Amino acid sequence: MPQTADEPDAVAVRTWCSLALDALGREREAIDAINVYPVADGDTGTNLYLTVESAAAAVEAVFAAHETGTSVPSAADAVRAMAHGALIGARGNSGTILAQLLRGMAGVLAEGTGGDRMRLALDRAAVWAREAVAHPVEGTVLTVADRAAAAAGRAAPGADTAEVARAAYEGARAALDATPGQLPALARAGVVDAGGRGLVTLLGALVEAVSGRAPEQPYETSVPFVPPPADDAECPADGDAGGPAFEVIYLLEAGDEAVERLRTRLDALGDSLVVVGGDGLWNVHVHVDDAGAAVEAGVEAGRPYRIRITHFAADRAHARPEPAGRAVVVVVPGDGLAALCREAGATTVLARPGEPPASGELVDAIRRAHAREVVLLPNDGDLRHTAAAAAEQARAQGVRVALIPTRAAVQGIAALAVHEPDRSFDEDVVAMTAAAGATRYAELAVAERQSWTSAGICQAGDILGLIDGDVAVIGQDVPATARKVLDRMLAAGGELVTLVLGEHTPATLADSLEQHVREAHLAVDTTTYAGGHQGAPLLIGVE
Protein backbone atom coordinates (compact mmCIF):
# COMPACT_ATOMS: atom_id res chain seq x y z
CA MET A 1 0.00 0.00 0.00
CA PRO A 2 1.19 3.53 -0.62
CA GLN A 3 2.40 5.26 2.50
CA THR A 4 0.02 8.21 2.61
CA ALA A 5 -2.08 9.73 5.33
CA ASP A 6 -5.18 8.60 3.45
CA GLU A 7 -4.12 4.97 3.32
CA PRO A 8 -2.31 3.87 6.51
CA ASP A 9 0.00 0.94 5.90
CA ALA A 10 1.58 -1.57 8.26
CA VAL A 11 4.11 1.02 9.40
CA ALA A 12 1.26 3.30 10.48
CA VAL A 13 -0.28 0.44 12.48
CA ARG A 14 3.08 -0.18 14.12
CA THR A 15 3.45 3.52 14.85
CA TRP A 16 -0.04 3.67 16.33
CA CYS A 17 0.77 0.82 18.73
CA SER A 18 4.05 2.43 19.74
CA LEU A 19 2.53 5.88 20.29
CA ALA A 20 -0.44 4.42 22.19
CA LEU A 21 1.87 2.40 24.43
CA ASP A 22 4.03 5.44 25.18
CA ALA A 23 0.98 7.58 25.94
CA LEU A 24 -0.60 4.98 28.22
CA GLY A 25 2.73 4.55 29.97
CA ARG A 26 2.72 8.27 30.77
CA GLU A 27 -0.94 8.38 31.77
CA ARG A 28 -1.33 4.97 33.39
CA GLU A 29 -1.21 6.21 36.98
CA ALA A 30 -3.60 9.08 36.30
CA ILE A 31 -6.10 6.67 34.72
CA ASP A 32 -5.67 4.20 37.59
CA ALA A 33 -6.41 7.03 40.05
CA ILE A 34 -9.86 7.75 38.57
CA ASN A 35 -10.90 4.09 38.27
CA VAL A 36 -14.10 3.84 40.35
CA TYR A 37 -16.35 1.79 38.05
CA PRO A 38 -17.27 -1.08 37.80
CA VAL A 39 -14.83 -1.81 40.67
CA ALA A 40 -12.66 0.79 42.36
CA ASP A 41 -9.51 -1.32 42.18
CA GLY A 42 -7.29 1.33 40.59
CA ASP A 43 -5.97 -0.76 37.69
CA THR A 44 -7.74 0.42 34.51
CA GLY A 45 -4.71 2.32 33.23
CA THR A 46 -2.43 -0.61 33.99
CA ASN A 47 -4.77 -3.09 32.31
CA LEU A 48 -5.05 -0.94 29.19
CA TYR A 49 -1.26 -0.57 29.08
CA LEU A 50 -0.73 -4.33 29.34
CA THR A 51 -3.34 -5.00 26.65
CA VAL A 52 -1.77 -2.54 24.22
CA GLU A 53 1.69 -3.86 25.07
CA SER A 54 0.56 -7.33 23.98
CA ALA A 55 -0.92 -5.87 20.77
CA ALA A 56 2.30 -3.99 20.03
CA ALA A 57 4.41 -7.11 20.66
CA ALA A 58 2.29 -9.07 18.17
CA VAL A 59 2.79 -6.39 15.52
CA GLU A 60 6.54 -6.36 16.17
CA ALA A 61 6.60 -10.14 15.72
CA VAL A 62 5.04 -9.73 12.26
CA PHE A 63 7.69 -7.17 11.32
CA ALA A 64 10.45 -9.42 12.70
CA ALA A 65 9.29 -12.21 10.39
CA HIS A 66 10.02 -9.89 7.42
CA GLU A 67 13.44 -8.71 8.60
CA THR A 68 15.33 -11.09 6.31
CA GLY A 69 13.64 -9.65 3.21
CA THR A 70 13.14 -6.20 1.77
CA SER A 71 9.35 -6.09 2.09
CA VAL A 72 7.22 -5.03 5.04
CA PRO A 73 4.06 -6.75 6.21
CA SER A 74 0.76 -5.81 4.63
CA ALA A 75 -1.62 -3.54 6.50
CA ALA A 76 -3.98 -6.51 6.79
CA ASP A 77 -1.31 -8.63 8.49
CA ALA A 78 -0.44 -5.80 10.88
CA VAL A 79 -3.99 -4.95 11.99
CA ARG A 80 -4.88 -8.62 12.42
CA ALA A 81 -1.76 -9.15 14.53
CA MET A 82 -2.65 -6.09 16.60
CA ALA A 83 -6.14 -7.41 17.29
CA HIS A 84 -4.91 -10.93 18.06
CA GLY A 85 -2.22 -9.64 20.39
CA ALA A 86 -4.78 -7.55 22.27
CA LEU A 87 -7.13 -10.53 22.52
CA ILE A 88 -4.59 -12.90 24.06
CA GLY A 89 -3.11 -10.23 26.33
CA ALA A 90 -6.30 -8.47 27.44
CA ARG A 91 -6.35 -7.65 31.14
CA GLY A 92 -9.33 -6.67 33.24
CA ASN A 93 -12.71 -5.34 32.17
CA SER A 94 -11.25 -2.38 30.28
CA GLY A 95 -8.59 -4.37 28.46
CA THR A 96 -11.10 -6.99 27.36
CA ILE A 97 -13.42 -4.34 25.89
CA LEU A 98 -10.44 -2.66 24.20
CA ALA A 99 -9.50 -5.98 22.60
CA GLN A 100 -12.97 -6.18 21.07
CA LEU A 101 -12.77 -2.58 19.84
CA LEU A 102 -9.50 -3.35 18.08
CA ARG A 103 -10.89 -6.59 16.69
CA GLY A 104 -13.84 -4.70 15.20
CA MET A 105 -11.53 -2.14 13.58
CA ALA A 106 -9.16 -4.79 12.28
CA GLY A 107 -11.94 -6.70 10.55
CA VAL A 108 -12.68 -3.63 8.41
CA LEU A 109 -9.20 -2.20 7.90
CA ALA A 110 -7.83 -5.58 6.82
CA GLU A 111 -10.05 -5.31 3.75
CA GLY A 112 -8.98 -1.81 2.75
CA THR A 113 -8.03 1.64 3.98
CA GLY A 114 -9.00 5.26 3.50
CA GLY A 115 -11.38 7.65 5.21
CA ASP A 116 -14.55 5.71 4.45
CA ARG A 117 -13.02 2.48 5.73
CA MET A 118 -11.94 4.23 8.94
CA ARG A 119 -15.51 5.46 9.50
CA LEU A 120 -16.80 1.91 9.07
CA ALA A 121 -14.01 0.50 11.26
CA LEU A 122 -14.84 2.81 14.16
CA ASP A 123 -18.55 2.08 13.81
CA ARG A 124 -18.03 -1.68 13.80
CA ALA A 125 -15.66 -1.41 16.77
CA ALA A 126 -18.31 0.38 18.83
CA VAL A 127 -21.05 -2.07 17.84
CA TRP A 128 -18.97 -5.18 18.54
CA ALA A 129 -17.74 -3.88 21.89
CA ARG A 130 -21.29 -3.17 23.04
CA GLU A 131 -22.44 -6.62 21.89
CA ALA A 132 -19.62 -8.26 23.86
CA VAL A 133 -20.80 -6.78 27.18
CA ALA A 134 -23.65 -8.70 28.80
CA HIS A 135 -25.27 -5.60 30.33
CA PRO A 136 -23.99 -2.38 28.73
CA VAL A 137 -23.95 0.68 30.97
CA GLU A 138 -24.01 4.26 29.70
CA GLY A 139 -21.29 6.62 30.82
CA THR A 140 -18.57 4.02 30.25
CA VAL A 141 -16.05 3.38 27.48
CA LEU A 142 -18.92 1.93 25.44
CA THR A 143 -20.60 5.33 25.31
CA VAL A 144 -17.34 7.05 24.43
CA ALA A 145 -16.78 4.55 21.58
CA ASP A 146 -20.32 5.14 20.29
CA ARG A 147 -19.87 8.92 20.24
CA ALA A 148 -16.46 8.63 18.60
CA ALA A 149 -17.94 6.51 15.81
CA ALA A 150 -20.85 8.91 15.40
CA ALA A 151 -18.48 11.89 15.14
CA ALA A 152 -16.38 10.05 12.57
CA GLY A 153 -19.54 9.42 10.57
CA ARG A 154 -20.25 13.17 10.51
CA ALA A 155 -16.85 14.03 9.05
CA ALA A 156 -17.02 15.84 5.72
CA PRO A 157 -17.70 13.69 2.63
CA GLY A 158 -14.43 12.59 1.07
CA ALA A 159 -12.49 13.16 4.30
CA ASP A 160 -9.24 11.22 4.47
CA THR A 161 -8.19 8.85 7.23
CA ALA A 162 -6.51 11.56 9.31
CA GLU A 163 -9.57 13.82 9.18
CA VAL A 164 -11.90 10.96 10.17
CA ALA A 165 -9.59 9.93 13.03
CA ARG A 166 -9.43 13.55 14.24
CA ALA A 167 -13.22 13.80 14.19
CA ALA A 168 -13.49 10.57 16.21
CA TYR A 169 -10.97 11.90 18.74
CA GLU A 170 -12.89 15.15 19.22
CA GLY A 171 -16.15 13.23 19.57
CA ALA A 172 -14.61 10.95 22.17
CA ARG A 173 -13.27 13.91 24.15
CA ALA A 174 -16.70 15.51 24.35
CA ALA A 175 -18.33 12.20 25.26
CA LEU A 176 -15.82 11.55 28.01
CA ASP A 177 -16.52 14.88 29.72
CA ALA A 178 -20.20 13.96 29.73
CA THR A 179 -19.76 10.58 31.46
CA PRO A 180 -20.20 11.85 35.06
CA GLY A 181 -23.68 13.02 34.11
CA GLN A 182 -24.56 9.51 32.92
CA LEU A 183 -23.11 7.36 35.69
CA PRO A 184 -23.78 8.23 39.36
CA ALA A 185 -20.59 6.52 40.60
CA LEU A 186 -18.52 8.90 38.49
CA ALA A 187 -20.49 11.95 39.60
CA ARG A 188 -20.05 11.07 43.29
CA ALA A 189 -16.30 10.66 42.84
CA GLY A 190 -15.94 13.73 40.63
CA VAL A 191 -14.17 11.84 37.85
CA VAL A 192 -14.70 10.81 34.23
CA ASP A 193 -14.79 7.17 33.18
CA ALA A 194 -11.32 5.62 33.35
CA GLY A 195 -11.85 3.24 30.42
CA GLY A 196 -13.19 6.07 28.28
CA ARG A 197 -10.18 8.16 29.27
CA GLY A 198 -7.94 5.38 27.98
CA LEU A 199 -9.85 5.23 24.69
CA VAL A 200 -9.36 8.96 24.18
CA THR A 201 -5.63 8.40 24.67
CA LEU A 202 -5.63 5.64 22.03
CA LEU A 203 -7.54 7.77 19.53
CA GLY A 204 -5.12 10.63 20.11
CA ALA A 205 -2.28 8.25 19.25
CA LEU A 206 -4.19 7.16 16.13
CA VAL A 207 -4.48 10.77 14.98
CA GLU A 208 -0.73 11.23 15.35
CA ALA A 209 0.05 7.93 13.61
CA VAL A 210 -1.99 8.67 10.48
CA SER A 211 -1.39 12.42 10.24
CA GLY A 212 2.11 12.81 11.63
CA ARG A 213 0.87 15.39 14.15
CA ALA A 214 -0.43 14.93 17.66
CA PRO A 215 -3.84 16.46 18.42
CA GLU A 216 -3.48 20.22 18.84
CA GLN A 217 -5.30 20.14 22.17
CA PRO A 218 -4.35 17.09 24.27
CA TYR A 219 -7.23 15.96 26.42
CA GLU A 220 -7.61 17.55 29.84
CA THR A 221 -10.78 16.77 31.71
CA SER A 222 -13.04 19.69 32.49
CA VAL A 223 -14.49 17.75 35.42
CA PRO A 224 -12.80 18.71 38.72
CA PHE A 225 -10.98 15.73 40.21
CA VAL A 226 -12.03 14.60 43.66
CA PRO A 227 -10.12 11.53 44.92
CA PRO A 228 -12.59 8.65 45.23
CA PRO A 229 -13.08 7.09 48.67
CA ALA A 230 -11.05 3.92 49.13
CA ASP A 231 -14.12 1.76 49.68
CA ASP A 232 -16.24 3.09 46.79
CA ALA A 233 -16.32 -0.16 44.83
CA GLU A 234 -19.52 -0.48 42.89
CA CYS A 235 -20.56 -3.17 40.45
CA PRO A 236 -22.87 -2.60 37.49
CA ALA A 237 -25.42 -5.16 38.59
CA ASP A 238 -26.66 -3.74 41.83
CA GLY A 239 -24.41 -0.90 42.99
CA ASP A 240 -23.49 -2.81 46.16
CA ALA A 241 -20.23 -1.38 47.48
CA GLY A 242 -19.05 -4.85 48.32
CA GLY A 243 -19.61 -6.43 44.92
CA PRO A 244 -18.47 -9.88 43.82
CA ALA A 245 -15.35 -11.21 45.49
CA PHE A 246 -13.39 -12.31 42.42
CA GLU A 247 -12.44 -11.21 38.93
CA VAL A 248 -11.96 -14.22 36.65
CA ILE A 249 -10.42 -13.92 33.19
CA TYR A 250 -9.18 -16.61 30.83
CA LEU A 251 -8.56 -17.46 27.20
CA LEU A 252 -10.91 -20.09 25.84
CA GLU A 253 -10.78 -22.35 22.81
CA ALA A 254 -14.40 -23.15 21.99
CA GLY A 255 -17.04 -23.01 19.28
CA ASP A 256 -19.68 -20.31 18.89
CA GLU A 257 -22.57 -22.37 20.27
CA ALA A 258 -20.62 -23.40 23.36
CA VAL A 259 -19.70 -19.78 24.00
CA GLU A 260 -23.34 -18.68 23.80
CA ARG A 261 -24.21 -21.24 26.48
CA LEU A 262 -21.22 -20.05 28.51
CA ARG A 263 -22.44 -16.45 28.36
CA THR A 264 -25.80 -17.49 29.79
CA ARG A 265 -24.23 -19.48 32.60
CA LEU A 266 -21.70 -16.82 33.59
CA ASP A 267 -24.33 -14.10 33.45
CA ALA A 268 -26.26 -16.01 36.12
CA LEU A 269 -23.11 -16.37 38.26
CA GLY A 270 -22.00 -12.75 38.43
CA ASP A 271 -21.66 -9.43 36.63
CA SER A 272 -19.28 -7.33 34.50
CA LEU A 273 -19.43 -10.16 31.96
CA VAL A 274 -17.48 -9.50 28.77
CA VAL A 275 -16.78 -12.22 26.20
CA VAL A 276 -14.76 -11.18 23.15
CA GLY A 277 -13.13 -12.97 20.25
CA GLY A 278 -14.19 -15.38 17.54
CA ASP A 279 -12.91 -18.04 15.16
CA GLY A 280 -12.50 -20.47 18.02
CA LEU A 281 -10.51 -18.23 20.40
CA TRP A 282 -12.18 -16.09 23.07
CA ASN A 283 -11.23 -13.93 26.03
CA VAL A 284 -13.66 -14.31 28.93
CA HIS A 285 -13.98 -11.79 31.77
CA VAL A 286 -16.46 -11.87 34.68
CA HIS A 287 -16.81 -10.77 38.31
CA VAL A 288 -18.17 -13.55 40.53
CA ASP A 289 -18.31 -14.81 44.10
CA ASP A 290 -17.60 -18.40 43.02
CA ALA A 291 -14.40 -18.33 40.96
CA GLY A 292 -14.33 -22.11 40.72
CA ALA A 293 -17.75 -22.20 39.11
CA ALA A 294 -16.67 -19.61 36.53
CA VAL A 295 -13.64 -21.70 35.57
CA GLU A 296 -15.69 -24.89 35.57
CA ALA A 297 -18.12 -23.28 33.13
CA GLY A 298 -15.17 -22.58 30.84
CA VAL A 299 -14.03 -26.20 31.06
CA GLU A 300 -17.49 -27.36 30.00
CA ALA A 301 -17.46 -24.94 27.06
CA GLY A 302 -14.00 -25.79 25.75
CA ARG A 303 -10.37 -25.45 26.83
CA PRO A 304 -9.67 -22.51 29.16
CA TYR A 305 -6.06 -21.48 29.79
CA ARG A 306 -4.05 -18.49 31.02
CA ILE A 307 -6.54 -18.31 33.87
CA ARG A 308 -6.20 -15.25 36.13
CA ILE A 309 -8.21 -14.88 39.34
CA THR A 310 -8.06 -11.65 41.37
CA HIS A 311 -9.52 -11.52 44.88
CA PHE A 312 -11.16 -8.12 45.20
CA ALA A 313 -11.96 -8.59 48.88
CA ALA A 314 -8.27 -9.02 49.70
CA ASP A 315 -7.47 -5.90 47.71
CA ARG A 316 -10.09 -3.89 49.57
CA ALA A 317 -9.01 -5.14 52.98
CA HIS A 318 -5.48 -3.97 52.22
CA ALA A 319 -6.24 -1.00 50.02
CA ARG A 320 -3.40 1.21 51.20
CA PRO A 321 -0.92 -0.70 53.35
CA GLU A 322 2.30 0.88 54.43
CA PRO A 323 5.03 0.02 51.91
CA ALA A 324 7.37 -2.77 52.99
CA GLY A 325 11.03 -1.96 53.32
CA ARG A 326 12.25 -4.35 50.64
CA ALA A 327 10.86 -7.00 48.31
CA VAL A 328 12.10 -9.42 45.68
CA VAL A 329 10.27 -9.88 42.37
CA VAL A 330 11.12 -13.14 40.61
CA VAL A 331 10.21 -14.40 37.13
CA VAL A 332 9.72 -18.17 37.27
CA PRO A 333 9.12 -20.70 34.46
CA GLY A 334 6.66 -22.95 36.32
CA ASP A 335 4.04 -22.96 39.03
CA GLY A 336 6.12 -25.22 41.28
CA LEU A 337 8.95 -22.71 41.53
CA ALA A 338 6.40 -19.93 41.88
CA ALA A 339 5.05 -21.55 45.05
CA LEU A 340 8.60 -22.07 46.34
CA CYS A 341 9.53 -18.43 45.79
CA ARG A 342 6.30 -17.17 47.33
CA GLU A 343 7.04 -19.24 50.44
CA ALA A 344 10.38 -17.42 50.59
CA GLY A 345 8.50 -14.11 50.57
CA ALA A 346 9.02 -13.14 46.92
CA THR A 347 6.48 -11.70 44.50
CA THR A 348 6.35 -13.93 41.42
CA VAL A 349 5.66 -13.48 37.72
CA LEU A 350 4.93 -16.68 35.81
CA ALA A 351 6.65 -17.03 32.43
CA ARG A 352 4.58 -19.61 30.59
CA PRO A 353 6.25 -21.67 27.83
CA GLY A 354 6.39 -19.48 24.74
CA GLU A 355 4.78 -16.53 26.58
CA PRO A 356 7.47 -14.39 28.23
CA PRO A 357 6.12 -11.61 30.46
CA ALA A 358 5.96 -8.09 29.07
CA SER A 359 7.52 -5.12 30.83
CA GLY A 360 4.09 -3.99 32.00
CA GLU A 361 3.60 -7.27 33.85
CA LEU A 362 6.93 -6.79 35.61
CA VAL A 363 6.01 -3.22 36.56
CA ASP A 364 2.67 -4.53 37.82
CA ALA A 365 4.48 -7.09 39.98
CA ILE A 366 6.77 -4.41 41.38
CA ARG A 367 3.70 -2.38 42.30
CA ARG A 368 2.05 -5.43 43.91
CA ALA A 369 5.17 -5.96 46.02
CA HIS A 370 4.42 -2.52 47.53
CA ALA A 371 7.94 -1.89 48.77
CA ARG A 372 10.30 1.07 48.81
CA GLU A 373 13.16 -1.13 47.55
CA VAL A 374 12.83 -4.01 45.07
CA VAL A 375 15.30 -6.56 43.75
CA LEU A 376 14.23 -7.82 40.31
CA LEU A 377 15.33 -11.28 39.14
CA PRO A 378 14.33 -11.87 35.46
CA ASN A 379 15.89 -15.37 35.32
CA ASP A 380 16.10 -15.30 31.51
CA GLY A 381 18.73 -13.70 29.32
CA ASP A 382 16.11 -12.85 26.71
CA LEU A 383 14.26 -10.73 29.28
CA ARG A 384 17.15 -8.38 29.97
CA HIS A 385 15.76 -5.48 27.91
CA THR A 386 12.21 -6.06 29.13
CA ALA A 387 13.36 -6.16 32.75
CA ALA A 388 15.51 -3.05 32.29
CA ALA A 389 12.53 -1.14 30.88
CA ALA A 390 10.36 -2.26 33.79
CA ALA A 391 13.00 -1.26 36.32
CA GLU A 392 13.35 2.16 34.72
CA GLN A 393 9.60 2.73 34.76
CA ALA A 394 9.35 1.68 38.41
CA ARG A 395 12.21 4.00 39.35
CA ALA A 396 10.34 6.86 37.71
CA GLN A 397 7.50 6.07 40.12
CA GLY A 398 9.78 6.45 43.14
CA VAL A 399 10.72 2.80 43.77
CA ARG A 400 14.37 1.94 44.26
CA VAL A 401 14.95 -1.05 41.95
CA ALA A 402 18.06 -3.18 41.56
CA LEU A 403 18.07 -5.45 38.51
CA ILE A 404 20.23 -8.54 38.94
CA PRO A 405 20.74 -10.00 35.43
CA THR A 406 19.98 -13.63 36.29
CA ARG A 407 19.79 -15.77 33.16
CA ALA A 408 18.14 -18.90 34.57
CA ALA A 409 15.71 -19.89 37.30
CA VAL A 410 18.40 -21.74 39.26
CA GLN A 411 20.41 -18.52 39.47
CA GLY A 412 17.32 -16.81 40.85
CA ILE A 413 16.90 -19.53 43.45
CA ALA A 414 20.53 -19.11 44.52
CA ALA A 415 20.11 -15.34 44.80
CA LEU A 416 16.88 -15.64 46.77
CA ALA A 417 18.51 -18.10 49.17
CA VAL A 418 20.99 -15.47 50.39
CA HIS A 419 18.51 -12.57 50.45
CA GLU A 420 18.51 -10.80 53.85
CA PRO A 421 16.16 -7.80 54.07
CA ASP A 422 17.70 -6.65 57.37
CA ARG A 423 21.06 -5.69 55.87
CA SER A 424 21.58 -2.61 53.71
CA PHE A 425 20.12 -2.61 50.22
CA ASP A 426 23.50 -2.38 48.51
CA GLU A 427 24.98 -5.22 50.60
CA ASP A 428 21.94 -7.40 49.92
CA VAL A 429 22.17 -6.78 46.16
CA VAL A 430 25.89 -7.54 46.12
CA ALA A 431 25.38 -10.83 48.01
CA MET A 432 22.51 -11.90 45.77
CA THR A 433 24.43 -10.96 42.62
CA ALA A 434 27.46 -12.94 43.80
CA ALA A 435 25.31 -16.01 44.53
CA ALA A 436 23.67 -15.85 41.12
CA GLY A 437 26.98 -15.33 39.34
CA ALA A 438 28.53 -18.33 41.10
CA THR A 439 25.76 -20.60 39.79
CA ARG A 440 26.25 -22.30 36.45
CA TYR A 441 23.02 -23.33 34.80
CA ALA A 442 21.82 -25.96 32.38
CA GLU A 443 18.60 -27.37 31.03
CA LEU A 444 17.40 -30.28 28.94
CA ALA A 445 15.24 -29.66 25.89
CA VAL A 446 13.71 -31.77 23.15
CA ALA A 447 14.85 -30.91 19.61
CA GLU A 448 11.90 -29.95 17.42
CA ARG A 449 13.68 -30.41 14.09
CA GLN A 450 17.01 -31.33 12.54
CA SER A 451 19.49 -28.51 12.98
CA TRP A 452 23.12 -27.58 13.47
CA THR A 453 24.23 -26.98 17.06
CA SER A 454 27.50 -26.22 18.80
CA ALA A 455 27.62 -29.94 19.72
CA GLY A 456 26.90 -31.22 16.20
CA ILE A 457 23.81 -32.06 14.18
CA CYS A 458 20.70 -33.01 16.12
CA GLN A 459 17.60 -34.78 14.86
CA ALA A 460 13.98 -34.09 15.77
CA GLY A 461 13.26 -35.81 19.10
CA ASP A 462 16.87 -35.75 20.34
CA ILE A 463 17.48 -34.63 23.92
CA LEU A 464 19.65 -31.52 24.05
CA GLY A 465 21.73 -30.61 27.07
CA LEU A 466 22.32 -26.84 27.15
CA ILE A 467 24.99 -25.49 29.49
CA ASP A 468 25.03 -21.74 30.08
CA GLY A 469 22.76 -21.35 27.05
CA ASP A 470 24.76 -23.39 24.52
CA VAL A 471 24.09 -26.95 23.36
CA ALA A 472 26.82 -29.09 24.93
CA VAL A 473 25.35 -32.61 24.76
CA ILE A 474 23.09 -34.40 22.29
CA GLY A 475 21.51 -37.57 23.65
CA GLN A 476 18.75 -40.06 23.05
CA ASP A 477 17.10 -40.06 26.48
CA VAL A 478 16.76 -37.72 29.44
CA PRO A 479 18.61 -39.71 32.17
CA ALA A 480 21.78 -40.37 30.15
CA THR A 481 21.89 -36.82 28.79
CA ALA A 482 21.38 -35.39 32.27
CA ARG A 483 24.28 -37.45 33.65
CA LYS A 484 26.60 -36.23 30.89
CA VAL A 485 25.59 -32.63 31.50
CA LEU A 486 26.21 -32.98 35.24
CA ASP A 487 29.62 -34.56 34.68
CA ARG A 488 30.68 -31.72 32.39
CA MET A 489 29.49 -29.06 34.82
CA LEU A 490 31.05 -30.71 37.88
CA ALA A 491 34.38 -31.25 36.10
CA ALA A 492 35.10 -27.60 36.92
CA GLY A 493 34.12 -28.14 40.58
CA GLY A 494 31.02 -27.50 42.60
CA GLU A 495 29.50 -27.91 46.04
CA LEU A 496 25.75 -28.00 45.42
CA VAL A 497 23.63 -29.34 42.56
CA THR A 498 20.06 -28.06 42.18
CA LEU A 499 17.59 -30.08 40.12
CA VAL A 500 14.22 -28.66 39.04
CA LEU A 501 11.95 -31.31 37.54
CA GLY A 502 9.30 -30.55 34.93
CA GLU A 503 5.67 -31.51 35.33
CA HIS A 504 5.96 -34.81 33.44
CA THR A 505 9.47 -35.77 34.56
CA PRO A 506 9.36 -38.76 36.94
CA ALA A 507 10.65 -38.20 40.47
CA THR A 508 12.80 -41.31 40.06
CA LEU A 509 15.06 -39.29 37.76
CA ALA A 510 16.07 -37.06 40.66
CA ASP A 511 16.88 -40.11 42.78
CA SER A 512 19.07 -41.63 40.09
CA LEU A 513 20.87 -38.35 39.39
CA GLU A 514 21.46 -37.76 43.10
CA GLN A 515 23.00 -41.23 43.37
CA HIS A 516 25.17 -40.54 40.32
CA VAL A 517 26.46 -37.29 41.84
CA ARG A 518 27.10 -38.98 45.18
CA GLU A 519 29.10 -41.79 43.56
CA ALA A 520 31.00 -39.82 40.91
CA HIS A 521 31.56 -36.50 42.66
CA LEU A 522 32.48 -36.65 46.32
CA ALA A 523 31.32 -33.96 48.77
CA VAL A 524 28.72 -32.53 46.40
CA ASP A 525 25.20 -32.12 47.79
CA THR A 526 22.01 -32.33 45.72
CA THR A 527 18.64 -30.64 46.25
CA THR A 528 15.52 -31.19 44.18
CA TYR A 529 12.42 -29.07 43.47
CA ALA A 530 9.23 -29.76 41.52
CA GLY A 531 8.99 -27.07 38.86
CA GLY A 532 5.52 -27.87 37.59
CA HIS A 533 4.53 -26.81 34.06
CA GLN A 534 7.84 -25.19 33.10
CA GLY A 535 8.48 -26.34 29.53
CA ALA A 536 11.91 -27.94 30.09
CA PRO A 537 11.93 -31.50 31.52
CA LEU A 538 14.89 -30.64 33.76
CA LEU A 539 16.72 -27.53 34.96
CA ILE A 540 20.15 -27.89 36.59
CA GLY A 541 22.19 -25.52 38.70
CA VAL A 542 25.71 -26.01 40.05
CA GLU A 543 27.14 -23.77 42.77
Radius of gyration: 25 Å
Instruction: Tell me the strand percentage band.
Output: 15-25%
Q: Helical segment tally?
A: 19
| Count of DSSP strands | 16
Structural class: alpha/beta
In percent, how helical is the residue content?
40-55%
- What topology, given as strand order, has the largest sheet? 13-12-9-16-14-15
Head-to-tail CA distance between termini: 56 Å
What best-fitting shape do the alpha-carbon axes yield?
Answer: elongated
The unreliable regions are 1-6, 221-241, 315-320
Describe the largest sheet.
6 strands, mixed
The whole-number mean of residue pLDDT values reads: 86
List keywords for this structure.
alpha/beta, six-stranded mixed beta sheet, 19% strand, 16 strands
In short:
The chain has about 550 residues and is an alpha/beta fold.
List the topology elements:
Elements: H1 10-33, H2 44-64, H3 75-89, H4 92-109, H5 115-132, H6 141-153, H7 161-178, H8 184-189, H9 194-211, E1 246-253, H10 256-269, E2 270-278, E3 281-288, H11 291-301, E4 303-311, H12 312-317, E5 324-332, H13 335-343, E6 347-350, H14 359-369, E7 371-377, H15 384-396, E8 400-403, H16 409-417, H17 425-437, E9 440-446, E10 451-453, E11 456-458, E12 463-467, E13 470-475, H18 478-490, E14 496-502, H19 507-520, E15 525-532, E16 538-542
Parallel strand pairs: 5-6, 5-7, 7-8, 14-15
Antiparallel strand pairs: 1-3, 1-4, 2-3, 9-12, 9-16, 10-11, 12-13, 14-16
